[in-house]
Amino acid sequence: MEQRKDSRFPVGFRSSFSSANSLSGDGTLSDLSIRGCRIRSLVEMNPGTVLQLRVHVSERESPIVVSHAIVRWYRAGSFGCEFVNLGAEEWARLRAVTTELEKEPYQKTQEETDAA
């Protein structure tokens, strides 16, 4: 079994996706890492499908756009994507999100206390 190189984080971000052949849909992004994710969706996907993926991390910010994500697997109700191409700004935003998720809860609490 292949070992993952990057940590995966259990999240519940809203996501939307589309492909060049007009396939599109919405889902819930989970198991986020810096290189990919799992998306729970009612849309059936074929491995190898290339998607543009929009990750809605916050209602206050525009979504992070992964311009080129490849579907690596599909199992009833969810599929896995590898992030192949992100713009520099989108990469920085994704990195910031995963860095925040890596922090222990007490670190977040302490920072919020310090900021108050």
Helices and strands in order, then pairings?
Blueprint: E1 13-19, E2 24-30, E3 36-40, E4 50-56, E5 64-75, E6 78-85, H1 88-102, H2 105-115
Antiparallel strand pairs: 1-2, 1-4, 2-3, 3-6, 4-5, 5-6
Task: Provide structural commentary.
- This protein has 116 residues and is α+β, with helices and mostly antiparallel strands.
- The protein has one domain (13-115): Beta Barrel (Thrombin, subunit H), CATH 2.40.10.220.
- Helices cover 22% and strands 40% of the residues.
- It is built from two helices and six strands.
- It has a six-stranded antiparallel beta barrel.
- A hairpin with a 5-residue loop joins β2 and β3.
- It starts with 12 loop residues before the first strand and ends with a helix.
- The model has no long low-confidence stretch (mean pLDDT 86).
